[in-house]
Design goal:
The protein has about 270 residues and is of the alpha/beta class. It has 6 helices and 15 strands. The strands form 5 sheets. It has a 3-stranded mixed beta sheet with strand order 2-1-15, covered by helices on one side. It has a 3-stranded mixed beta sheet with strand order 3-4-5, with helices on one face. A 3-stranded mixed beta sheet has the order 6-7-8, with helices on one face. The longest helix is centred in the first third of the chain and has 17 residues. The protein starts with 10 loop residues before the first strand and ends in a 5-residue tail after the last strand. The protein binds citrulline. The site of citrulline has 17 residues, from loops. Pfam families: DDAH_eukar (PF19420).
């Protein structure tokens, strides 16, 4: 049987926001998010995932880790197995340790990134051609190379690319729309990373919309970005606008709140 599309998912892990999410990391302080606002956005996200046809496992909040709602960063998941990562910022490293046993319960194969470097899931984009690993302030060369070896164990090809200066994660600036098309900021497109793909450039001023999320037949896009939504609808995508105003205050978008994979046993 051929592999399902890389955006075909039947399984998702999310984690409830902790009250401490209001203290989450951010590059520019635009004020704290409200806990209630984050909960509302997270609840709508879970519902949108279920509407898109995936089974959602909801993990309990972790007060000691303000950013732990962003489950994408401490792990990587594939139909073939999972990789426990090493988030490249001190306050988030411990999230990997808490996530590992959950993955060991759900996957037959779980590989630990060796302690030689750091890698955040937000820097990893899975495409039909390869897994792209973006170097950033969170993912260093040693982590990226160690991750390539882990991915090879799962039979996955990978390539190391760069993230624009000052951008948190590689996927802050891009997302996969279908097998051959990426939604991408002009600054990341300029790096040439997506030369082999069709690209849709995010309208100027809506850069944060680039972290959209294709799940099965829909593309979730931040509802604060009407020009991006219009562009994608005109291009024929089935867009589901999602509120990301509060999580946006702690530098997050749509991919970061879930781990997504296709479980062939389901
Ligand atoms: C952080 O700085 O780690 C969080 N405040 C935001 C993480 C966003 N993660 C993601 O996009 N994968």
């Amino acid at each position: 049987m051929s592999n399902p599309a890389v955006y075909r998912f039947n399984s998702v892990i999310v984690r409830e926001p902790a009250r401490s999410v209001v203290n989450g990391l951010r590059a520019d302080d635009r004020g704290d998010p409200t806990y209630e606002g984050v909960v509302a956005e997270h609840t709508a996200y879970i519902q949108a995932m279920r509407d898109a046809g995936v089974e959602v496992t909801v993990l309990p909040a972790l007060e000691e880790f303000p950013d732990s709602i962003f489950v994408e960063d401490p792990a990587l998941v594939f139909p073939e197995g999972a990789i426990v990562l090493r988030p490249g910022t001190e306050t988030r490293l411990g999230e990997a340790e808490v996530t590992a046993p959950v993955l060991r319960d759900m996957f037959e194969t779980v590989i630990d990134l060796p302690e030689t470097g750091f890698a955040d899931g937000g820097d990893i984009l899975t495409t039909p051609k390869a897994v792209m690993i973006g170097l950033s302030a969170r993912t260093n060369q040693a982590g990226a190379e160690a991750l390539q070896a882990c991915l090879a164990q799962l039979g996955r090809k990978s390539e190391i690319v760069t993230t624009p200066e000052g951008v948190l994660h590689f996927k802050t600036d891009c997302s996969l729309l279908d097998d051959e098309t990426m939604l991408v900021t002009a600054r990341l497109a300029a790096s040439g990373a997506f030369d082999g793909f069709k690209t849709i450039i995010v309208p100027e001023g809506e850069e944060a919309a680039a972290n959209a999320l294709r799940v099965n037949d829909v593309v979730m896009v931040g509802s604060d970005f009407p020009r991006t939504i219009e562009t994608l609808e005109k291009a024929g995508y089935n867009v589901v606008p999602m509120k990301t105003t509060e999580i946006g205050k702690v530098d997050a978008g749509l991919s970061c709140m879930s781990l997504r994979w296709f479980d062939p046993r389901r």
